[in-house]
From TrEMBL:
GO terms for molecular function: acyltransferase activity. This is Acyltransferase. Keywords: Acyltransferase, Transferase. InterPro entries: CAT-like_dom_sf. Belongs to the plant acyltransferase family. It comes from the Eukaryota. It holds the Pfam family Transferase. The keyword Metal-binding does not apply.
């Protein structure tokens, strides 16, 4: 059995003092509404060199000069609001050694339980009152060769796109590209609160959503499945030829059809997380750092339709309908629910099962080359969820990996679903 031993833990601070021009940054309304969790991601590299830890630490300290809120701490303002105190306290950096594990054994699913030990933060919930770091990193060297880079970041200040922005900037810095920045590495903008001003919370208490309710007494299975490029092309044709299906639409439709079979008898609903930076008017910058996403329910899927094409079209219509007006309406609805004013608007969550779909595709995870090599595998490290489907690019950019969190009994059914097996294979196979 693999064993992880922590060798050291230290704090990495910005290499330059944090500017006094921005002593604090308010959380935006959507930051306030973000899940009170850490977002985790794991990068697997086949080659390890002794100089890697120091190079990562040095480049991280340089990167924090630009992403200085990540070196700060979340504090209460005393007026029912939260802000990031940009005090330069730093990010956490952990070094570890892993015995009796190889990159292949972990990827094949025999050591998924090890994921939590490969992350610097061993918990999913983020409590700002503990005054812990907003960013933590762990490098775990495998005695079988290679290493794993685990990253944990508070969802209060970053969505998936923001995490990708930070990691790509950090890897560029490690490669020495900071003096010749490409358009993909423009400085981050911490302007979300200007677009979505925060509101005064009557009670700064955060509750887990249904997607996070996977405590130790619940048998929730976490599985990864692969859909290769050939299977993907076949799947995209299932939805018809009227409009070319995207990979996310095609895979979401497949998973939804399978979920409806294994959870037959339940009243099901699907929501897709949508990055709306390019859907606002005026368009927001890709460099806007923070929570710029919204959950979009697909109401048509609450009916009994089983047509793959109809499911795809319903998802497409709902996602394309996201604009400035919709985002502001949805944000207000979420705020009302949080403050206990609009519970009737959450009807879908009171008598059925709500599934959350989210896509981490096309975020450039495999571009995170810190000067040694590109990662051989990138995957999420999130464990404490239920009824969640997360989609990620395969390394070739054509296939896809599907992460599912669901009840153990239902997971066994979906693994044996005949349609599912036509397109997807378990990494453990």
């Amino acid at each position: 059995m693999a064993k992880v031993t922590i060798l050291s833990t230290e704090t990495i601070k910005p290499s330059q003092p944090t500017t006094n021009s921005f002593p604090s940054i308010p959380l935006s309304l959507l930051d306030q509404l973000a899940p009170p969790i850490y977002t985790h991601i794991l990068f697997f590299y086949s080659t390890y060199l002794p100089e890697i830890p120091e190079k990562l630490k040095f480049s991280l300290s340089q990167t924090l000069n630009y992403f200085y809120p990540l070196a700060g701490r979340i504090r209460e303002t005393g007026k029912g609001k939260l802000h990031v105190e940009c005090n330069g306290e730093g990010a956490e950096f952990v070094e570890a050694q892993v015995a009796d594990a190889t990159l292949e054994s972990i990827r094949q699913g025999s050591a998924v339980e090890l994921f939590n030990e490969l992350l610097p933060t061993k918990k999913s919930l983020f409590d700002f009152r503990e005054t812990g770091p907003l960013l933590a990193v762990q490098i775990s060297v495998l005695d079988g060769g290679g290493f794993v880079l685990g990253v944990s970041i508070s969802h209060f200040i970053a969505d998936g796109a923001s995490l990708s922005m930070f990691l790509n900037w950090w890897s560029h810095t490690a490669r020495g590209f900071t003096k010749n920045l490409s358009p993909a590495t423009l400085p981050p903008r911490f302007d979300c609160a200007a677009v979505f001003p925060p509101k005064e919370m009557t009670n700064i208490t955060f509750h887990k959503s249904s997607s996070e309710e996977s405590g130790p007494n619940q048998e929730v299975a976490m599985r990864c499945f692969s859909i290769n490029s050939k299977a993907m092309e076949t799947l995209k044709q299932v939805g018809g030829t009227t409009t070319q299906s995207t990979r996310v639409e095609a895979v979401s439709a497949l998973i939804w059809r399978c979920i409806k079979r294994v959870q037959a008898g339940n009243r099901l609903s699907m929501s897709h997380c949508v990055n709306f930076r390019k859907r606002m008017a005026p368009i927001l910058s890709n460099e806007s750092f923070g929570n710029m996403w919204i959950n979009v329910e697909i109401p048509e899927l609450r009916t009994e339709t089983d047509s793959h094409e109809c499911i795809e079209q319903s998802i497409r219509r709902a996602v394309r309908g996201v604009d400035k007006k919709f985002v502001r309406m949805k944000a207000q609805e979420m705020w009302d629910v949080r403050e206990g004013k609009g519970n009737e608007q959450r009807e879908k969550g009171t008598d059925g099962v709500e599934w959350i779909f989210t896509s981490w595709c096309r975020m450039g995870w495999y571009d995170c080359d810190f000067g040694f090599e590109e990662p051989g595998w990138v995957t999420c490290g999130i464990t404490a969820m239920k009824n969640v489907c997360l989609l990620m690019d395969a390394k070739d950019g054509q296939g896809m990996e599907v992460w599912l969190w669901m009840a153990m009994e239902e997971m066994e059914k979906i693994e044996n679903d005949s349609e599912f097996r036509l397109f997807a294979t378990s990494l453990a196979d």
